[in-house]
Each structure stands twice: as structure tokens, then as C-alpha cells.
Amino acid sequence: QLWGGARVTIWLQKGEMLLKPHSRVQVFEGAENNLPDRDALRAALAIQQLAEGLMADDLLLVLISGGGSALLPAPIPPVTLEEKQTLTKLLAARGATIQELNTIRKALSQLKGGGLAQAAYPAQVVSLILSDVVGDPVEVIASGPTVASAHNVQDCLHILNRYGLRAALPRSVKTVLARADSDPHGPYSCGHVLNVIIGSNALALAEAQQQAEVLGYRAVVLSAAMQGWDAPAAHRADRYQCHGHPPLVPAASVMA
């Protein structure tokens, strides 16, 4: 699944990567500008239908990266895509963290928070994950479609209370949260799933450090957990005095 307009970009830059005629591979575009939309919803429902048709001797290979939350919107009825978008925007505008946003998203989604893995059961599921979140928490990246959620309805209500949104919830959202709170089966596990981080800030830094050392530099990874904007280089000069000259320093800032 690709962000909206991605195929045009591929055609302009690397046309050989486009699918050949009569390919068995299907490509869905959606979530233009990284916002869930009707195209992404259609794609998510097609993915759900495919997963639900799998059997015990099938293997579902899932490729996950940052942006997956927008690419895989499947609200639990009667919540609509528009209602879920509005709630997410209100939370973000009031300063909710990515972890808090994803907790709400997962509670209102058929596929996030392990929902895709549950749909695929009893098939085996292998997820290859590119992390865009500091610390690589697999339950947060793309809202964890193949990772069982550790959160419950009370966690959601606590977040909604914190940002003053509980009283303004649409009836549909209240219905879904109340239904989940009374589910006699409780949370489910994802024992048939293997989640593997294949790319992350930490992995990139380690490789950059190794390659720099091969070239003869003294490489120091200052941090793999930096978030937001780093201080200007002029403000970091005091860090280098003990080296006699600035070392080659791989570092990265990750915005969730």
C-alpha cells in the first residue's frame, strides 16, 4: 500500500519499479499528505478481507513503516472515518503524545492494536518493521497492527479526560468504548506472530558508526533517543574540547 501520488513519483523517478501488466500484485494508494482518507479506508478493508480468508497453513507477510496508521484506517462501526479523524486532530491540537494518539486509534480500530493479526488467525504472521519511533516500541509503530494492545478502555478515558474531550465524544465512540469495556473475552494474544525490526534510528546509527571507523574516523554515537530539534552546532563546541578536534558524530533526531 502506498501514500497517495506515490505511483506518479515512482513513474517519474524509477519507472522500472512499476508493476508489469497482469501482475498478481495489487497496489492501493491512499492517505495523501499522511492523512487517512476514503482511498486508504478501501485499501484497509481489502487487506482485512484478505487476512480473514487465510487458513492455518498460510503465511501472512506484513511490511510496516511509519505512516501505517494513516494508511490502515478501519474504524469499528458505528464510528466513521470522519469522527475518528476529528477526535485525533482534537487530541493532537491539545498536545497529546504519539503514544496517547495511538492508544485512542487502536481502541477505535478493527486493524490497529493487533487487529490485523487477529483477523489473520490461525495463519502465521511475520511482520518486518521500519521504525520511526524512538526506542522502537513495536506496539506504537503504525499503531501496532500485528501487536496486541496492552491498553484498555480506562487508559482511553484517562487520556480523554486529560485533554477535556470525554464529554464531547460522539455517541458512536462512546458505544465502541462501552462495548470493549464489557467484552467477556478480554484482550487477545498474538502468539502466532513474529515481529522483527529491520530498520531503525539505532540500527542506522550503528551502521554509520561502523562505516566511519572503517574509514579511520573516531566515531561516537551521542544518542539514539534524541527527539525534536537539536541545539545549533555552535552550542555544542564544548563537547569536543577533550578530543582536540570535533569527532565524526553520527546522531539523529526522530520526530514521531
In short:
The longest helix is centred in the N-terminal third of the chain and has 15 residues, at 38-52.
Blueprint (SSEs and pairs):
Layout: E1 2-3, H1 6-13, E2 29-30, H2 38-52, E3 59-64, H3 68-71, H4 81-93, H5 98-107, H6 115-120, E4 124-130, H7 153-162, H8 171-181, E5 193-199, H9 201-214
Parallel strand pairs: 1-2, 3-4, 4-5
Helix pairs in contact: 4-5, 5-7
What does this structure look like?
Belongs to the glycerate kinase type-2 family. By secondary structure, the protein is of the alpha/beta class. Helix content is 36%, strand content 9%. The chain contains nine helices and five strands, in the order βαβαβααααβααβα. The strands form two sheets. A three-stranded parallel β-sheet has the order 3-4-5. A two-stranded parallel sheet has the order 1-2. Residues 233-246 and 252-256 have low confidence and may be disordered.
Distance between the termini: 20 Å
Q: Which class of secondary structure composition applies to the elements?
A: alpha/beta
Q: Looking at the chains present, what oligomeric state does this protein adopt?
A: single chain
Q: Spans of 5+ residues with little confidence (pLDDT < 50)?
A: 233-246, 252-256
What general form does the structure show?
globular
How much β-strand is present in the residues? 5-15%
State the helical fraction.
Answer: 25-40%
Work out the radius of gyration.
21 Å
Order of helices and strands: EHEHEHHHHEHHEH
* Individual helix count: 9
Mean pLDDT: 83
What strand line-up does the widest sheet have? 3-4-5
The tally of strands reads 5
The biggest beta sheet, please?
Answer: 3 strands, parallel
Enzyme class: transferase
Catalytic activity: (R)-glycerate + ATP = (2R)-3-phosphoglycerate + ADP + H(+)
EC number: 2.7.1.31
GO molecular function: ATP binding; glycerate kinase activity
